[in-house]
Predict the 3D structure of the following.
Amino acid sequence: STATIVAGFAGSAMGAATQQNRTTAGAATTVDGARFDQTAAPAAPANLAVALNAVITANANNAINFNTPAGSFNGLFLDTANNLAVTVSEDTTLGFITNDANNGNFFNLTLGAGKTLTITGQGITAAQAAATKNAQNVVAQFNGGGAIANNDLSGVGTIDFGAAPSTLVFNLTNPTTQKAPLLLGDDAVIANGANGTLNVTNGFIQVSDKTFATIKTINIGDGQGFIFNTDATNGNALNLQVGGATINFNGTDGTGRLVLLSNAAGGGATDFNVTGSLGGNLKGIIEFNTTAVAGQLIANAVIGTNNGAGRAAGFVVSVANGNAATVAGQVYAKDMVIQSTNAGGQVNFGHIVDVGTDGTTAFKTAATTVAITQNSNFGAVDFGNTASQITVPDTKVLTGNFKGDAGNNGNTAGVITFAANGTLASGNADANVAVTNKITAIEAADVGVVQLSGTHTAELRLGNAGSQFKLADGTIINGNVNQTVLVGNAALANGAIQLDG
């Protein structure tokens, strides 16, 4: 059998319908309302099933069993200074799960086999909370009439997928964004992750504990996101996709986003060790973010599988404050973004980067230095009017069509620096179509020959008497020679320009 936890719509009080506030008085079950508040005299007090859309206040230090088939409840409120066990025995939908009144304690959720828990994060307004009624149909204000915000999951403790396969799905009624995700704190942890599936169908979810990486299958829907900002598995690395675990990008467009945040906290994961590849089949946007602290995608962390149909949809590298991002594995992504919060960003690629014949690379926000180590294809490159630089090591080929500012042809930006020997090749799908570049400069920094072809609106800079630009037949240079010092204030030198043809 299989079990499923889905985090989705719980509903709020709608129209003139009465919303219940049911309080626990013992080990409580929702299907019959046993050990919840009871009906009134003169008839003998009796259990009353917890109505759909009710809010549940946990007053007793006892477990709660969600055993209403297809039950849907507005939320759980922890009103006792104890950790409480919650069993999901039937498919259940929940909104908020809060420990607002007792923030040192949590609900520990265990899934029954073959069941679904849907958590939507739906909150409750003050007006709704002030009008809730108990089993006696008498106003019994929830939370003293206080509101609970949307997406308050502060009361989530352990999520135990149990002994059978189970699934956690986040389907937020009020979806969060990458800039303001739903945060699951350090106390939200996973047990028996090898039996789990996590689906993100609406919203961005950020987790803090490494145990989320143990979930067997993580599925991210179109336009939604999952963010790791956790402690390390060992050393300073978080291990992903271990033991057959997978991170998948579902949906037609494959625009789901996996964000790997380098964590500056003590014990935080700054590096990511990935078994297999992330993204592929032109699906999945993977972002590596080192704005808080330098980090790396370790060599076996491959983006995509090849430079054709096996590419990821996108790869984003976000840096700031000189915190370098090192990407040691291959990168095959159709659209690549390099963005730095402020000038001085550094991205180091340790392997092939290839966006394919129709791929793109965009620089955004502020100047970033990108260092490649292997022959790489950046596709149609937009330097975004930033003073960014691509450095190419000895004997390597950089392929692409480069513009300083695709949004304003009047701007000139971007520098390509060759360490010694190298080639700047056309990024056109037809290799016989010459490249046309418009950037600030192409630099030959040291002894060696840099081969150019096509049309280049750029300054040529030579940094050594042994530096040489070799221009293929038909090459056009629209720009000055040796008018500005090299990036880093390296002095100019009387190198050579050779016409070949």
The longest strand covers residues 331-340. The chain is about 0% helix and 40% strand. The first helix runs from residue 126 to 130. The chain has three domains: 1-215, 249-374, 390-501.
